Amino acid sequence: MHNDIKKILVSEDRILEIVKRLGELISKDFEGKRPMFIGLLKGCNPFMSDLLKNVSIDCTLEYMIVSSYKGTDSTGTVTIKNDIPEVMDRDVILVDDILDTGRTLNAVKKILLEHGAKSVTICVLLDKPEGRKVEIKPAYVGGLVPNEFVVGYGLDYNESYRNLPYIGVLKEKVYSK
Ligand code: IMP
Ligand code: MG
Questions:
Q1: Assigned CATH for 5-175
Q2: What strands, in cross-sheet order, belong to the sheet with 36-41?
Q3: How many Å lie between the centroid of ligand 1 and the Cα of residue 169?
């Protein structure tokens, strides 16, 4: 285990089981359709890669670069840094690492619907229900986490720890550096 990690919340094996289940579920629910997966970078990266390996239906893949965080605090403003994919009449599956306040996915979903998406379905690896500030209902959730800042498997603290293969909680000393 990495020296800055206090405890592991979701192990590597468990993550892969969860992701397999989500991929199979989506494949069943979207059978006969051709959904467009849109991942929110950078956090969605490992999750999206593993998820798509478990999706067996025809689909397309796009990414959006979105940020709303500085350190561990939600800034409340969501910035989109690249062109919005062509979503007209498409069934979109929005993929992100974690749902916290809900502001990011809420804002992106609204924009995609304004750009003509037929439907926008939300898929997150983790949900932190206690952090919610706006109402949003994810269709696919890998697991729930308590109101703690978590890192690993795409999730960062000041851009570090995205490369950890598991999800864990940082030691306090890391924040006070
Ligand atoms: P929301 O807009 O507050 O729902 O935040 C969603 C985004 O905040 C996610 O895409 C993450 O990048 C980031 N985030 C929220 N909670 C955590 C956390 O515990 N660790 C790392 N990133 C987080
Ligand atoms: Mg993110």
A1: 3.40.50.2020
A2: 73-80, 60-70, 36-41, 91-99, 119-127, 140-144
A3: 14
